[in-house]
Amino acid sequence: MIKKIGLVLFASIALVACGDNEKAWKPISPLNTTSLLNMYALQDNYEEFNALYMNGTDTASTEESFSQIKGIATPNAGIDNFTTLSFDNGEMVIIHLTPVPNEKGEVLIQSIVKVPEEMKAFIRDAISQPKPSQ
């Protein structure tokens, strides 16, 4: 599975690079941004790592994230795309999305997991960080 993800990652970056070499090194998709994050951590390149964050993100948060990722990053990282869907009734699900290598460029659902009650606050707090600096 990791080899498959690595191959898809390599192919995605190669295709983007062939089409527009400049785009291969820009955060143009969740997959590309995550790949760049890992690469910059492995290169000990905080400046480029930090540039992947939204403007106004708290520096202390990005430095902490950089330190954490740098300490665990490996060249053969698997990349999965997840999103949360929060409903106004308090329920939440995590959706595992997978890019499909076809001419449509689709991103389809691989699985959906309902978030247990005891994990909702943890996830909400975790994804709300880092907060933009004031």
Strand order of the largest sheet: 1-2-3
Rg is: 16 Å
Mean pLDDT: 83
Number of domains: 2
Which percent bin holds the helix content?
40-55%
Q: Globular, elongated, flat, extended or rod-shaped: what is the shape?
A: globular
User: Regarding quaternary structure, how should these chains be classified?
Assistant: single chain
Order of helices and strands: HHHHEEEH
Terminal CA distance reads 42 Å
Strand content: 15-25%
Count of individual helical segments: 5
Class computed from helices, strands and strand pairing: alpha+beta
Please count the beta strands (DSSP E, at least 2 residues each).
3
User: Main beta sheet: strand number and arrangement?
Assistant: 3 strands, antiparallel
Runs in which pLDDT lies below 50 for 5 or more consecutive residues are: none
Model description:
By secondary structure, the chain is an alpha+beta fold. It has two domains: 1-79, no CATH class; 80-129, no CATH class. The protein has helices spanning 2-19, 30-42, 46-51, 59-72, 117-127; strands spanning 81-86, 92-99, 107-114. A three-stranded antiparallel β-sheet has the order 1-2-3, with no helix packed on it.
